[in-house]
């Protein structure tokens, strides 16, 4: 796991934690909002990272042992899609207001572009 992956994982864990705190009114919204905004920037970076991987490594994904090339590619693409879909679904479920505004629009746009790239 890369350090960026750790930061992203911690960011999504923070998103869930802060959403639970917000729901129980343990702390004011002003204290939570900056941390939640950082989750959007981490998710945006993750989407761009996966987009770079898919774009630059088209056909050159590392082989998996005892797997034919086609199934290897399908497994890689499935894993890369899950890498961005799961956190995006979490944000949609826990804090949908983060996907509003300029940063949220950029995230939704780049996520949609990535999904189209993965489906093609």
Apparent shape: elongated
| Oligomer kind | single chain
Q: Low-confidence spans: pLDDT under 50, at least 5 residues? A: 1-10
Helix content: over 70%
Number of separate helices: 4
Number of domains: 1
Largest sheet features: none
Number of strands: 0
Radius of gyration from the CA trace?
A: 16 Å
What's the order of the H and E elements? HHHH
Beginning-to-end CA distance, first to last residue: 28 Å
| Structural classification | mainly alpha
The averaged pLDDT comes out at: 75
Strand-residue proportion: under 5%
List the helices and strands and how they pair.
Blueprint (H helix, E strand, L loop, with lengths): L2 H22 L4 H28 L12 H26 L6 H19 L1
Helix pairs in contact: 1-2, 1-3, 2-3, 2-4
Give a short overview.
This protein is mostly helical and 120 residues long. It has helices spanning 3-24, 29-56, 69-94, 101-119.
Please explain how this structure is put together:
With 120 residues, the chain is mainly α. It has one domain (3-119). 79% of the residues lie in helices and 0% in strands. It contains 4 helices and no strands. It has helices at 3-24, 29-56, 69-94, 101-119. The two termini are 28 Å apart.
Annotation keywords:
mainly alpha; disordered N terminus; elongated; single chain; 120 residues
